[in-house]
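Course assignment 3, question 2. Fill in each field.
Student: A.L.
Task: Predict the tertiary structure for the chain below.
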Amino acid sequence: MAESFEIILSELGALEGAFKSESDEVKGPQALEEIRIKYLGRKGSVAQYFKKMGSVSTADKPKLGNTLNKLKDEFQTEIDRIQVSLQTKSEDNGFIDLTLPGTPPQVGYRNPLMLVMDEIKEIFSSMGFSTETGPLVETEFYNFEALNVPADHPSRDLQDTFYLENDLLLRTHTSPVQIRTMQKQKPPVRIIALGRCFRKDTPDASHSPEFHQCEGLVVDKGIAFSHLKGTLLAFARKLFGPNIQVRFRPSFFPFTEPSAEYDFSCIICSGKGCRTCKKTGWLEISGAGMVDPAVFGYVDYDAEIYTGFAWGMGIERIAMMKYGIDDIRHFYENDFRFLKQF
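Answer field:
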C-alpha cells in the first residue's frame, strides 16, 4: 500500500526543524561530524527517506525525489558553513608565538640533465672546444638539406618530425648548429652544440618527444678518423673514469662518410657483461663519422683542403648512465623527491 506523500512531506518538515535546532547548538568539529552522520550518513535520516521512494505512488515519486535532493543539499551547505566558521574561530583564537622561527622555504635542486650538460661543456672546453647555439625552430634547409639528407629520407617523414607552417619545423637534432657555424666561420672549427630537440616519439622509459643532444664538430687540415676516436675516448674517460673504452661499429648517416655507431664499455660491470649492457659489456651511445664532402659544398668549404669529423650523443642517455636512472620520464616530471637526490 502506497504511503501518503503529504504525511512524508510533514515528516520532512519536522526533520528539517530538528536539523536546524541541533546545528545551531554545535560547538565543535566532533559535534558537527555527529550531526553529519545522523542526517547525511549512509544510514542517516535523509537516506532512510530515499528508501521510501518505492512506497509512494508513481506520480509522487519525482516530487519526493526533488524534495529530498533539495533537503540534502540544504543540510550539506549548512554543515559546510558551520565547518568554515569553526575553523575561522579556531584560527582567530589561536596563540602565535612570534619568537619561533619561520618555516624555511625549500631550496630547489638542479635537474641532473643540467648537471651533465655543464660537465660536458667543461670537459670539451678543456679540450679547446667552444659552445655554439642555434634556434629551436628551423628550416628544412638547415635541418635536412644542408646535412645531405635527401628529400626521400625516412627522417623527413611526418611521423618523425614536427612540421610547422612556411617551411618551418622543430629541429630534430642539433646538427643545424654545425651548418650555421660553418657558414659564418672559416676553418679551423672546433665546436660543440647542446640543446633541446624534438621528434614524434611515444613517451616511454627510453623515449621522449622532447630530448637533449650534444653534437661536436671539428674541421681543419689533416683531420682523420683517429682524431675522432681519440676525442671521444678522452671525453668518456673524463666523464666516467680512466677504465672506459670506446668501440666503433660501421653504420650509415647521410652527413658523414665513413659513418659509425660508437659504444662505451659498460660503466656498471666494467665490460664484463651484466643486465644493464645485456651481457655484451658495451653501452650504445650514438653516431659519429667523418664529415661528408657534400656537406662542405653547402658552406663553401674546400673538401680538397679540409676534412672534419662530427659526432652526437643524447644527454638523457649520458645522464641515465652516470646516475643509474632507468626511466627518461623522470627528467621531465619535476618531482622534488627525484631532483633532491642530485
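Instructor remarks: Residues 61-93 form the longest helix (33 residues). The CA atoms of residues 248 and 272 lie 18 Å apart.
Grade: pending
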